[in-house]
Amino acid sequence: MTRRYALALAVLASACAPEGAPPEQPDPQQLGEEAQAIEPLDTPSEENAIRFLEQATFGPRLANGATTLPLDSVERVVSVGITQSISDQFSAPRSLFDGTSASKDLGSQFFVNAVTGQDQLRQRVAFALSQVLVISQSGIPENTSTPESEPKVAMAGYLNLLSSRAFGNFRTLLDAVTKDPAMGTYLDMANNKAFNTKGEPIEPNENYARELLQLFTLGLHKLNEDGTQQLDGEGAPIPAYTEAHVQAFAHALSGWTYGGAACPTVGRSNPASYAQPMIGCDVNHDSSSQVLLRGVSTTNGAGAAQHLKEALDNIFADPNLPPFICKQLIQHLVTSNPSPAYVQRVVNVFKNNGSGVRGDLRAVVRAILEDNEARGPQPPLSLYATYGHLRPPALFITSVVRWLNVQLDTSADKDPGAKLNSWSRALGQYVPRPPSVFSYYPPNTPAPGGNGLLGPEFAILDTATVAARANFVHELLYSTAPATAGVVIDLSTVPADPDDLVLWLGRYLLHDTMSSDLQLVVYNAITDPRAGDTTRRKKLGFFLTSLSPEFQIQR
Q1: In Å, what is the CA distance from 184 to each residue of 211, 257, 393, 496?
Q2: What is the pTM of this model?
Q3: pLDDT per residue over 95-105, tens digit each?
Q4: How are beta strands 487-488 and 389-390 bridged, if at all?
Q5: Is pLDDT of 227 > 70?
Q6: pLDDT value at position 1?
Q7: DSSP3 helix / strand / coil % (the chain, rounded to 5)
Q8: Coil, helix or strand for 207?
Q9: Which CA distances in Å does 429 have to 27, 224, 397, 501?
């Protein structure tokens, strides 16, 4: 085992149980408005601004002397405040994916957008949604008889759909996702017929109906509004739906096919087409009444379009949907184990945005990021030991490169995004190709040794991917390969003096929470005569800090 591998394993081994956690403090609910009064949203400290950018972007960055402060820079958030920064991000120009043959791989486009795009919050939310409403580019078949790449075209359209709907209404998003041809292919919603070519009834495919209920909207078990499980009289979780419900939804959602052509005859299918949403064809739809959730029935004799609307309305109104979706959004943006009170507050906004509207994602995202459990120079002290989440590979990579003020050369002979995605793939997250409908990792994965705590990202952390994290940082800092691919780091603004360097690393990468133990480790390493020249000392300091559990666990 090389020295850097051993180092990586050592610094990550204690990530779930950091030493020296602050002592028990009063419940953050009791702090309430008092905590907010200590640091109002419109005048955040630098530490709070950095934490906000960790949650709302693909990594904080410094303005580095820019005349106009970038929307996603630490300095601008400090200047205009959290609330205004969120508003500015809502209206930032949107980054798009290009599915044409001449464009670069979608994973490459993803990382270029993530590092350089102005719409950081929209991209973060869309990325979170893509891990809830899952499609994988690997699950779209290629048609060799056509000039374009169907997986690329289909996935680009789907990613653009999530981006465009990221701040809209969840009910509208659910409708668009259900009718999307990429989703239709991936989970067999397209050409899901209730009749064969002889007009005889057949059982529709249940794939989309099952994942719609289990993974996209409700989850397996009934939840309280604060995200905790409801239990029956014997202490067992209560199912959120039954197998009969899955079958009923499969029938209610039958009859949809690819657009671009008229509806086929009974029992027939349209060829795959990804240029427009799917169309409902009554000739292949089961028009009989189906009993859905909570005993609600669809209209007997109605067509595919009406039944789809009734089915999605039924799911959208279910009390399980707000806590199931809100908790996952909190997990992706802020912390893997939000308190029930935090979940409840966000759920309240999902149910009513203040104007009587249910499912307003813009209001939900704002509520997540402005909540007292998310804001402040550091997490609430009473929650500190269980707060945060392991940085998933994509965010770990983008956070590191954005702090290093990396410049991406996207000229024709360079593909920096592909280089970033190759690192992410080695770390266990190959964008946008999750290995299953459960995404890159399931949201209910327990943290190792966490005594019941959740740690979703730990599902893809093992000895190989731990080493890959160290390899990524080492290659970025010390190899010529990244620059050859168009990934160029800039260490010019990083202090050269050892004392100043340690302070800079703690101030920015760890928003002034670097422990004295880590400070000593970094200082001793960069002042060792074997550390090399000034540039290598900067790199070593960055290498050690970025691989420490204090950085790997984002708080």
Answers
A1: 12, 8, 28, 55
A2: 0.93
A3: 999 999 999 99
A4: unpaired
A5: yes
A6: 39
A7: 50, 5, 45
A8: helix
A9: 36, 32, 11, 31
